[in-house]
Amino acid sequence: MSDDASLWSALADPHRRAIVALLLERPRSVGEIVEECGLSQPSTSKHLKVLREAGLVRVRQDAQRRVYALDPAPIAALDAWLAPYRKLWNRSLDALGRRLDETALTAPEDTSYDPEGPTTKD
Known about the structure:
- The chain is mainly alpha-helical.
- The protein has helices at 4-12, 14-25, 30-37, 41-53, 72-106, and strands spanning 28-29, 57-62, 65-70.
- It has five helices and three strands.
C-alpha cells in the first residue's frame, strides 16, 4: 500500500470515487467502467492508473480485457484512520439527542401549533 497522501489524493476526484463505488459492487472491465461512468476510454484509463498506483484497485488480465477490482487493504486503513472521528461524531450526536430529549420533557405542551405559522383574525 502506498502512503496516505496518495490515497486521499486519489479519492479527491469525483470520477475516481464513482469508479470506486462501481467496483464496490463487483469487479468490472474497463469497458464496463467507461459505459457506467460516461467518460472516454483514455480518461477512464488515466483514473484507473491513479487508483492502481494508490493501491486502491488491482487489475487482472482476462483474455483481451483488463478487469479491475477493489483492494480492501487501503480502504481498511482509511477506516481505521477515521475511527476516532467517528467516535467524536457519535458523542456529538448522542449529546444532541440528550438535549432534544430534555427540551421535549421541559417544553410546555402547545396544542395550537400551526405549521403554516400564526394566523391573523380579521
